[in-house]
From TrEMBL:
<dbReference type="InterPro" id="IPR017896">
    <property type="entry name" value="4Fe4S_Fe-S-bd"/>
</dbReference>
<keyword id="KW-0408">Iron</keyword>
<keyword id="KW-0411">Iron-sulfur</keyword>
<dbReference type="GO" id="GO:0051536">
    <property type="term" value="F:iron-sulfur cluster binding"/>
</dbReference>
<dbReference type="Pfam" id="PF17179">
    <property type="entry name" value="Fer4_22"/>
</dbReference>
<dbReference type="InterPro" id="IPR017900">
    <property type="entry name" value="4Fe4S_Fe_S_CS"/>
</dbReference>
<protein>
    <submittedName>
        <fullName>Anaerobic sulfite reductase subunit A</fullName>
    </submittedName>
</protein>
<keyword id="KW-0479">Metal-binding</keyword>
<feature type="domain" description="4Fe-4S ferredoxin-type">
    <location>
        <begin position="210"/>
        <end position="242"/>
    </location>
</feature>
<dbReference type="GO" id="GO:0046872">
    <property type="term" value="F:metal ion binding"/>
</dbReference>
Length: 251
C-alpha cells in the first residue's frame, strides 16, 4: 500500500501505533555536541514527525536501540538470580538503508554466528521493525554506494519526505493505520557519493589482523569505547558484575 499524506495525518498514525510501539528516530539535541555550542543528533523515542531530524546526518547509529550502551542482564543473591524485567512494547525505528545494513551485520554476529543465538540481543531484536527513510542525495562524507549498503528491501514502512508531505510504502499490514491518498512512487536511494572507497578483493583476514595500521591506532587509543559504540557494525562489548555495598554477595 502506497500513500501520500501530510505531517498531521502522519502524526495521527504514529499516535495510534504508540499503543503498541515505542517509536525511535534521529533527534537533534541542542548544545550536547562534542564542542561548545554544538548540537548532536542521536536516536531517541519520539511522538511526532516534527521531532525527527532527517535533513542532517546523525552522529550516532540506531544500533544504540537494539544494542544499548549499557544493559542490566540479571540480578543475583547468594542463592538465586533473576533476569531483569523486559519492556514488552514493540519497537519501530526510522532509519536509513545504510543503518539497516549495519544492523544486518549485528544480526549475523549475534544470531547466526554459532550454535546458539544471543539470548539478550534476540529479546530486543525480535520486537524491532524498520521504517526506511529514503535518501535523495548523499551527505558529504558518506560512501554507502562503495559498500553496497545504499539499498535495502528489509523494511515494514518505506518513506520519502518532501517538506510537509510524506510518501509511505507500507509493506506490513500491521502499519496500515495511516490515512492518505493512494499514489505510486519508489523509495529514494543514493546512486552516487561525493567520495568513493576501493574495497580490495579476496582480503586475507590473517594478514589484516597483523597489519601495521593497527599499531598506530593502538598507540592513540585511550580505551574509552566511543568507537565501538558509534560504529553501526561493531559487536564488541564488556561485562561487569556490580556488587551492592551493603552485601558483597548480592548484585
Amino acid at each position: 500500500m502506497k500513500l501520500k499524506l501530510d505531517s498531521s495525518k502522519f502524526n495521527e498514525g504514529l499516535n495510534y501505533l504508540k499503543k503498541d510501539y515505542k517509536i525511535f528516530a534521529p533527534v537533534l539535541i541542542p548544545f550536547k555536541g562534542t564542542f561548545s555550542d554544538t548540537d548532536v543528533i542521536r536516536y531517541k523515542e519520539v511522538n511526532a514527525f516534527e521531532e525527527m531530524e532527517f535533513a542532517k546526518k546523525a552522529n550516532f547509529s540506531p544500533k544504540e536501540v537494539v544494542l544499548p550502551i549499557n544493559q542490566v542482564l540479571f540480578y543475583f543473591t547468594e542463592k538465586e538470580f533473576k533476569e531483569s524485567d523486559l519492556d514488552n512494547k514493540k519497537i519501530l525505528i526510522f532509519l536509513r538503508a545504510c543503518d539497516i545494513n549495519g544492523i544486518k551485520r549485528l544480526d549475523e554476529i549475534y544470531l547466526n554466528n554459532g550454535e546458539e543465538k544471543d539470548y539478550f540481543y534476540k529479546n530486543i531484536r525480535d520486537k524491532v521493525k524498520f521504517a526506511l527513510v529514503g535518501c535523495k542525495e548523499s551527505f558529504r562524507n558518506c560512501f554507502c554506494v562503495s559498500m553496497d549498503s545504499n539499498k535495502t528491501d528489509n523494511y515494514s514502512i518505506g518513506l520519502n519526505i518532501e517538506g510537509d508531505t510524506l510518501y509511505l510504502d507500507i509493506k506490513d499490514s500491521e502499519f496500515e493505520v495511516f490515512n492518505g491518498e493512494a499514489t505510486e512512487f519508489n523509495v529514494d536511494y543514493v546512486t552516487d557519493n561525493l567520495i568513493s572507497v576501493d574495497v580490495p578483493e579476496n582480503i586475507d583476514s590473517n594478514e589484516m589482523i597483523g597489519n601495521s595500521i593497527w599499531d598506530e591506532y593502538d598507540t592513540r587509543c585511550i580505551g574509552c569505547g566511543r568507537c565501538n559504540f558509534v560504529c553501526p557494525t561493531c559487536s564488541c562489548f564488556t561485562m561487569q558484575d556490580i556488587f551492592y555495598k551493603e552485601n558483597e554477595n548480592v548484585g
